[in-house]
Each structure stands twice: as structure tokens, then as C-alpha cells.
Design a protein that fits this description.
- By secondary structure, the protein is α+β, with helices and mostly antiparallel strands.
- It has two helices and five strands, in the order βββββαα.
- A five-stranded antiparallel β-sheet has the order 1-2-3-4-5.
- Strand 3 and strand 4 form a beta hairpin.
- The radius of gyration is 16 Å and the shape is globular.
Length: 102
């Protein structure tokens, strides 16, 4: 059973990846917990309104996930709008680079 502080709003989910943990709104990663040197770092990837991308060192995965979950719950509406905007942006495909000729 999840602790109450770790309960996420609808559309939010934590995913475990090979690199660490990702906090997503639908398919948009808004925060991530990654190993860094001998510790962990929590990175927030959102750049919208009063929120700018930032990172902070954390002691353990559980604390990082708890902090980011609480942070996301307090900003759920804004983060959902951010994810909706990201989804509406044109997706840039990895196209092969063309060399210019003189």
C-alpha cells in the first residue's frame, strides 16, 4: 500500500527505467531521479510559468520520490497543462543530416 504522501493525481505515474525513476504526466517526463557519482540527483525538467528546470542532490530514492510527488501534487494543474502543451508541439523526427554543397 502506498503512503498517502506518495499518492499521485490522475495522469501522473512513476516509471522505473534502467537509468533510474521518471515522474510522468501521460507520456511527458517532468522529473527524474538518477544516480550521480556516489549519490542521487532529482531533476525537474519543466520550464513553464513560475517553474524553471532545476536539480538537487538527494539522499535516497524514497525521499526523492516522496519530495517530487508532493511537489507535483501541489502543481498538478500546471503540470497537466505543461504536458498538454508538450504533446501539441510538432515532434521533430531524427532526420539524417544533409550536407550543404558549395
Amino acid at each position: 500500500m502506498k503512503k498517502a504522501s506518495h499518492v499521485l493525481p490522475d495522469r501522473f505515474t512513476w516509471l522505473r527505467t534502467e537509468a533510474g525513476h521518471d515522474l510522468c504526466v501521460d507520456d511527458t517526463v517532468i522529473a527524474e531521479v538518477r544516480p550521480l557519482n556516489a549519490g542521487l540527483v532529482l531533476r525537474v525538467n519543466v520550464d513553464m510559468g513560475d517553474i524553471a528546470p532545476f536539480e538537487m542532490a538527494v539522499r535516497c530514492e524514497e525521499r526523492a520520490i516522496g519530495w517530487a510527488t508532493q511537489w507535483a501534487r501541489q502543481r498538478a494543474g500546471l503540470l497537466c497543462r505543461y504536458a498538454d502543451r508538450q504533446r501539441s508541439l510538432p515532434q521533430v523526427e531524427d532526420a539524417p543530416l544533409a550536407l550543404a554543397t558549395a
